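Summary for the lay section of the report: proteins are chains of building blocks that fold into shapes. Here we show the chain for SDR family oxidoreductase and then a coded description of the shape we predicted for it.
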Amino acid sequence: MTYRQIRSYGPRMPLTEYDLTGRTALITGAAGGIGRACALLLARAGATVHCADLDEDGLAGTRALVSADGGTARLHPLDVTDDTAVAAVVDSVVRSAGRLDVLAAIAGIMHTAPVLDTADEDLDRVLAVNFKGVLYACRHSARAMIATGTPGSLVTMASGAVDTALSGLFAYSAAKAAVVQLTRTLATELGPHGIRANVVAPGWIRTPMTHRDDPAGHRTAAMARRSPLGRAGEPEDIAHAVLHLASDASAFTTGQIIRPNGGVAMPW
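The coded shape description reads as follows.
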């Protein structure tokens, strides 16, 4: 590519592509951890963020942080396993904003048990939140984007666990692998509508969820040692990947897995 061809892209500065001013984003799992970090960053980029979660106190804390940073957040108490409730939240967002530009489907839970000891009810619960909750959010958000003619972006949350076999994380890994295939299929089916769908697959991130699973910090320390960077991830590391996929900077990216995992997994 020649210098003249590069210049033909126009006079805008590169960071303009990350500007979400005037856009509307729905974020599930926004009461803390990665979801809260995404709400803060997307709001900082100019989006009005609609924050959904079961934890109403956590949602209030997220809105306070967004407001203190000069952003705008709307709150939606939500159980992502309730298809009807998810549809109602998406409808509420579109009625208030007239459109939905970005979905970040981040709500998730973790369950630790060997395959032989995983009870059916635990597997069903993990699949309900980590897979069906993402399916419901994507399905209703995509329908809204098509109805309003919005070339939107669906961002789903998988895990580095889809690239390796981690003892004790069968249910979690299986649900996240299903999210990957769901997202790829959505990218194929929704591309003609101008809607993109991509997956973020984080490594081990310091969040309230991982702290509950690893209160003594042993797994966190082990994952930090496995990383070439020598550390575990922070929610902000993942939020920047979500912002990229939500923005025009990734306008030619769909059906892809973005892996901010500190180099713990490096699949071809």
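Put simply, here is one thing we learned. The chain has one domain: 20-110+124-203+235-258.
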